[in-house]
Amino acid sequence: MAIDNTLSPHGGELIEKIASPKDAPHLAAGLTRIAVRDSIAREVINLCYGFFSPLDGFMVSSQVDSVVKNMTLTNGLVWSIPIVFDVSSQAIAEVGVKQGDSVLLTYQDQALAVLDVAEIFSYDQETMARHVYGTADQDHPGVMRTLGLEDTFLGGPVTLVNSPIINPPFAPFWKTPRELRQRFSELGWSTAVAHQTRNVPHVGHEWMMKGALLSSEADGILVSAVIGEKKPGDYIDEAIVLAHRRLREAGFFLPHIHETSTLMWDMRYAGPREAVFHAIVRKNLGCSHHMFGRDHAGVGNYYDTYAAHEVFQNLPDLGIRSVLTLEWWYCPVCQSVAYEGHCGHRDQKEDLAGTVIRRIIDGGQEPAPTTLRSEILEIVRECADKYNSGSAFVTPEYLENRAPVFSLPTLDCCTCTEHRPG
User: Does domain 24-162 have CATH number 3.10.400.10?
Assistant: First the structure.
């Protein structure tokens, strides 16, 4: 069964901006270079491969203002998170970049992409934070991230001139939107439900996915694991992707209904706004449905438990259907994993909370199959030993020593001056 062609990308067209190997050195030759940090490099890749369709580059001021205040692009198409490239005004003055220039963005001392500078502008970060996160409280990690941006932004289209090499163990899970759509076709999927995750799967996650498959009647489920900025206490990226694959390998999902992939994205923890963003990106991947559970993309107590459910009620049809799910827990009366919408023993529930799972992983005890599959615990502990000196959770040592998710080959284009913002 071929992929349903009605599942078009957001805006109707998959935007891919990738120079051919023949043209790339010529596009990059002679340009002023600006080195970019990890988060900007990831967003360049997402822009150029179409993850962020219909965007073709970093937003200009009118787009930023419309997204921040109206949650739409200037053409009225729904978009909820500003995608910006921040550079200090001092750095711009030092490198001498002007509107209308083209610059070569570099990463790991290698050419990455060409940015055609359509606009150099400033935007009030507190205004951005208040609208996107609903708060300017600096205890909110997304607010802190936004308030920490540099004072100036470069907007304009970007073209990839050097394709990334995805490093182990992530290579099998990396697929562009075009490649994922082809993979769905190979699997015979005309519909797919997306599961956004930044966690190792416990049994509640497993049943949430199975429930979404049943209620959506989709052909398969795409586990879309977020790989990006990490804070201490988060699961290490390697454990996330390998544990989700192990669910399928261990037979908890049939191989033809389950696929694991990665999305290079730095969580903003923007609650309902980020839920909308996640739906748009997974639509670009070819998904027909997206599941949303409790506290989706939330943090602390900044958003209502089911704010990500409510936000879609006031939006036009996005072309991807929401699968809204309540909580899954273990019920000692039912003696099984139970669903909040069905189980009448709420006062006796045993939460499958992250803290419980962390105690199992860190404590050396064997879990009950009603909390964490032994197969999952095994792979998580293997990842902890192999990638982080015995811990499955992000530590300062992990952040300092981890191997990069991707690398760039050498592109022989020119010899010129490189500027490192900041």
Answer: yes
